[in-house]
Amino acid sequence: ISLPVRGLPDTRTKTLFRSAASSAFRFGTSGYQVCDSLCPGIGYWLKYSPVSDSVLPPGGSPLLADTVDLAKGWNLVGSISVPLAASSVRSNPPGIETSSFFGYEGSYFTTDTLLPGQAYWIKAGQDGQMILSNSAAPGPAACIRIMPTAEMPPPPPSEKDLLEAKTQKLPESFAL
Questions:
Q1: What pTM was estimated for this model as a whole?
Q2: Which of the two ends of the chain, N or C, has the fewest CB atoms closer than 10 A to its terminal CB?
């Protein structure tokens, strides 16, 4: 999942996804990390019921453009408020070489369109920034260079990650 809007008064996972059966996990250089709140531009793993929770939270301002930091290697990135063709994603510096975008629905699949509220894996050939925008089509030199690969993204968070997240809860009370 991702947060495709700005300006929500409460971005805590438990507020946005009441049916969540797990913590939200983001992916970084040291693997998966538990997150209490969601931020635009970042992709998250979350076990929840799409029937009970909408992918697009009510309120907030549409996110029509965003700049997302990329690290060399695998990145789990968010989306903006409107569908966006993968071929129109720009980069800074221009022309960063990447894998295809991968989504997940029980297994990984490649996609040519980034949908609002969804998160996607992308492997970057170098550090830089990815620019998501529904404005006028950029010139080809400014776009990422998508190079298909047989390599798949990292696996979802494990049961061990889920158990560790549950044991990291804060105490219910403090006393002196």
A1: 0.85
A2: C
